[in-house]
Amino acid sequence: xxxxxxxxxxxxxxxxxxxxxxxxxxxxxxxxxxxxxxxxxxxxxxxxxxxxxxxxxxxxxxxxxxxxxxxxxxxxxxxxxxxxxxxxxxxxxxxxxxxxxxxxxxxxxxxxxxxxxxxxxxxxxxxxxxxxxxxxxxxxxxxxxxxxxxxxxxxxxxxxx
Length: 161
Description:
By secondary structure, the chain is an alpha+beta fold. The protein has one helix at residues 4-38, and strands spanning 53-61, 70-76, 84-86, 92-94, 96-100, 103-107, 111-112, 120-130, 133-142, 150-159. The protein is built from one helix and ten strands; from the N terminus they run H-E-E-E-E-E-E-E-E-E-E. Strands 1, 2, 3, 4, 5, 6, 7, 8, 9 and 10 form a ten-stranded antiparallel β-sheet that branches. The relative contact order is 0.14. The model has no long low-confidence stretch (mean pLDDT 83).
């Protein structure tokens, strides 16, 4: 009879612990469900129509002696065709656009550099809409420029009326 009492006490203790773990698991899953329900909805899909129009752009070098911005107008359409960079010199450069998440990836074929005389350049990078402004980064790849063949630029633009 003396051995039954400790065994019974041990069984009761195990039962209480087991029930407490189930209650805790139920509480944890309820909290997780409430957190999931309170999560904000996903951001709407990127629409090229949001970019459509003309943008006054500045491409500002991140390093080097000359940090003068290169100015241009970006003409954007509601689809991936018809995007063009218009430089003040009159040069028009077609732009290839690809949607990637919340960004637009862009690429140009080689054209006459507006920063370096008698040098061809191609550019690639990304644009994003942030608080009504068009921002991004670009890499300029200069042809036959040796060690100084790449330039990183920060892009900033405002939509034209």
